[in-house]
Amino acid sequence: MANAFVLAQALDPVTDSVAAQLSNERNTLGMHGAGAIEALAREMTHELQSQAASLGNGSHTLTTKGVDFEITKSDGVVVDSKGINKDLIVRPFHQSGVVVSLREFSVNAMNHHHGMQAEERFDLNPQTNFDRDFDEDGVKRELTIGDFTALAVFQAALSIPQQILPKDPAELSAVRQGENHFLAIGCASCHKPAMVLNSTIFSEPNPFNPAGTFNDTSKTFTWDMTQFGVHPRLQKENSGQAIVRAYTDLKRHNLCDDQGTDNSIRFFCNEQLDQGRPSQDGRPGREFFLTRKLWDAGSSAPYGHRGDITTLTEAILYHGGEGRESRDKFASLTRKEQAEIIKFLKSLQVVEFDGDVDG
Description:
By secondary structure, the chain is of the alpha+beta class. Helix content is about 25%, strand content about 15%. The strands form 6 sheets. The chain has a 3-stranded antiparallel sheet with strand order 3-4-5, covered by helices on one side. The chain has a two-stranded antiparallel ribbon with strand order 1-2. Strands 6-13 form a two-stranded antiparallel sheet. The radius of gyration is 21 Å and the shape is globular.
C-alpha cells in the first residue's frame, strides 16, 4: 500500500511541500467491504439524528448499533459531541473519519492524485461559476456524474473480508484462544466484532453527501449486496438483515495520553492539522482517529494512520488514551497469549475472489 499526503492539494497557491504544517501523511485504506461499511454508516446516521431530534436540551447518550455517542443540546441544536461531528453524520472513510461516502472519497482522490476534476464539484457548481475547465488544462468535463457513480458502485461491490481458520488443530486452537483474549482485555469495546445491517440494499448516491458531491436521491442506482458483487459477499440472515464483522465502531477515538515514558503516549499524536475533526474534552481534533477496521488485519500491513508500524504487536503497544487500558492488559499477558491474539488477528483476511460479479 502506498502512502498519500492530504490537504496539501487544498492550498492556494498550490504547494508541492509535504511538511507537517501543510499536510497529513496517510496510509491508504483497504477498500474491501466498503459498501457494507458505507451502508452501516448511513443507518447509524439516520438513527442518531432521529434520536437527537426527539430530545430536549442538555447532555444525552445516543446509541446506535451498540455504539454510544455523547452529545449536548442547547436551543434545540447539538452544540457538542464526542466521537462524531455535531451534525451526527457518521463519516466511515479516511483514517481521520472525515469522509461521508465512497463517492466523496473518489471525487477528492481524482482531483488530488490524478488532477481530474468532477463535473459535479466544478462544472455544475455555482461557486466555481460552472467552470468546465477549472484547472485550465484544455480538457472539459473530465469526469462526469456517471463516471463517479460507476466508481462508487465498483468500490461498494468489492468482496467482504473473511476469517480464514487454519486446518491444523493446534493452530486453530491458538486462533480461538486469541479471540478469547482479544475479548477479555477489552479490545472489542471499540473494535466491535459485529454490527447488524438492517438493509442489504445499497443505493448510490449517498443522501448525506456534502455540497460538491452528487446527492440527488431521486436518481439512484440500487442493488442487494448479498446478491450482486464480487465473492465473498455479505450473507443475508433469515431476518433479512446482514452481520458486518468489521471489528470497528465507526467512531473517532483519542489514542494519545500523557502517562508513562514509553512511545505509546504520543505515537499517534503527530499531526498539526485538524482536518475537519472537532476538538473534544480539551484535546485538539488532530488527536482523534476512526477506529481501524480489523476484518482485513491479516492482509493490510503496514499499520497505523501513516503506515509506519510494521507489526500488529507494535500497533497494539502504541495505543494510549482511550486504548491504554486494553493496551496495558495486552502488555501484561504472557508471550504465548500475546502470540495467540496476533494469530487471531492474522486470520482476518481479504480472500482471493473468483471474479464473479453477477447475481
